[in-house]
Amino acid sequence: MPPTRALVQTLADRTAALRGGPSRPVPDLGPAVVMDQLAVVIHDLFEADPEANAASSVANELRGIRRGF
Questions:
Q1: Per-position DSSP letters for 12-50, written without gaps between them
Q2: Which residues contact 38 (CB under 8 A, 6 or more apart)?
Q3: Who contacts 12 (Cβ-Cβ below 8 Å, separation ≥6)?
Q4: Fewer CB within 10 Å: N-end or C-end of the chain?
Q5: Residue 8: per-residue pLDDT
C-alpha cells in the first residue's frame, strides 16, 4: 500500500495548501483503513476548492495507483 499512502499524503498536503495551513503527516493506520483515509482526503480536497479541476487530476493519480498493482 505504499503508493496509496503516498497519494493520501499528497492530497492532504494539497488540501492544507488550499486552506492556507501547514502540512501535517497523515497517520499510518495500516492497510485496513488506508482506503478510508483516501476517501476522506479526496472529500476534503473537493470541499476546500469545489471549483477546482481537481477531479481529473485525482482520477489520473488513482489510475496510477491501480496500474501499480
A1: HHHHHHHHT----PPP---TTTHHHHHHHHHHHHHHH-T
A2: 4, 7, 8, 11
A3: 23, 24, 26, 41, 44
A4: C
A5: 97
CB proximity list for 28: less than 8 A, separation 6 or greater: 5
pLDDT at 17: 95
> Would you say 26 and 37 are in contact if contact means Cβ atoms under 8 Å apart?
yes
pLDDT in tens, the chain (69 residues): 899 999 999 999 999 999 999 999 999 999 999 999 999 999 999 999 887 667 778 888 888 888 766
